[in-house]
What does this fold into?
Amino acid sequence: MTLVAETVGGALESSAPPRAATGLERLRLAHRALPGRARGDVRLRTRLLGADLEAPVLLEGATREAAAAASEHGTGLLLAGDVLAPDRPPLLLAAVGLQELRAVDGPERAERQVARLDADGLVVRLDLLAQVSAGGPEPPRWPIEAIAAAAARIAPLPLVVRADGCGLDAADARELRLAGASAIDVGGGEAHPGDPHWETWGVPLADAVAEAALGAGGVPVLAGGLRDGVEVAKCLALGAAAAAVAVAPERLGALIADLRVAVWATGAAAAAELNQGYLRAAP
It folds into this structure.
């Protein structure tokens, strides 16, 4: 077993649900046999959306256990749902679906959700493809207008827009930036895994991160749905500012330790130093 796998301690469970290919399997991290520093000297701290995080990680979860884990490890909590937890992480983001913003009072509902959870910002989940696939109406321009209205309503708090699992590209990132998004989460390629109707659809996660980073114009890009520290490191190298991770709360510490090993083994002194020069094509 490799050092990274030992550090993870089984963060990747065999029972984890399947997902579509992310494109990260096409990439390997560069490796330094002589990293030049101790693992403990590698810096993971980052500042994201006005919050100081111990690692560039946001835990996906809607339970008290997730809130407690994020608080313990100094990470963000993404898609907080309706949890009112006593343990408050450094960055707590409430969440609404884009369809909820379509109502006449949609922006006001979003503002009330943020206030009710005493959140530091809001995540708007794009769910257009799911709505259309279910026979819903085809949207014209209203999604961008709704996002812009919600961003203005909750300002100066940040608004994060999260893709629906089929990724997005540089043009989407530019539109979302102009609409007032404070960060753009490209999603995690988790939509419709194993469904042959969708298996060739969308922008793979690795490509979405790189393209969004080009189109975002300085707005932070997040990579969603990741499951281990090596995936997080690869996405940071592709241009992500942080990653949303889909692991059980008790595995969060192991994932962060795994990220530290991955950064250390590239020879980088800090996670923030990673760039595409630290990536190699997989054979």
Notes: Confidence is low (pLDDT under 50) at residues 1-16. The longest strand covers residues 91-97.
